[in-house]
Amino acid sequence: MKELFQHTAITDGIVVRVAVNFLPEQSRIEAGKWYWVYHIRIENDSDQTVQLLKRHWRITDGTGKVSLVEGDGVVGEQPVLAPGRSHDYVSGCPLSTPQGSMEGYYTFRRENGTLVKAAIPYFPLAAPATAG
């Protein structure tokens, strides 16, 4: 299955692509829980090897409530990407509203020791309208 990446950000040769999908089968709308899955592809288009050290997410729900999520790596990994290589992972986001958004950045270390904050593009979380 070829994924359609809807959102892209490029920072100093590091490309972050995002595809997001609402998962009705994981959501419990009657209980006020909506769930999305997102697929991230990180591509190293720079001329140096980089390692993903940390993630920083800003998640906003439909009421404007912001949650900040920070941590080491992504899904338990701190991938090392040589020039021309990419890394894919899939994760999910629950919200208590049928819409919201996510954005943020990854902190990478280049082989020369410098740090790069690579933007994660803003992307909306929107459940399809349901007949009520």
From TrEMBL:
Residues 8-132 form the ApaG domain. It comes from Novosphingobium album (ex Liu et al. 2023). NCBIfam families: PRK05461.1. The gene is apaG. InterPro entries: ApaG-like (IPR050718), ApaG_domain (IPR007474), ApaG_sf (IPR036767). It comes from the Bacteria. This is Co2+/Mg2+ efflux protein ApaG.
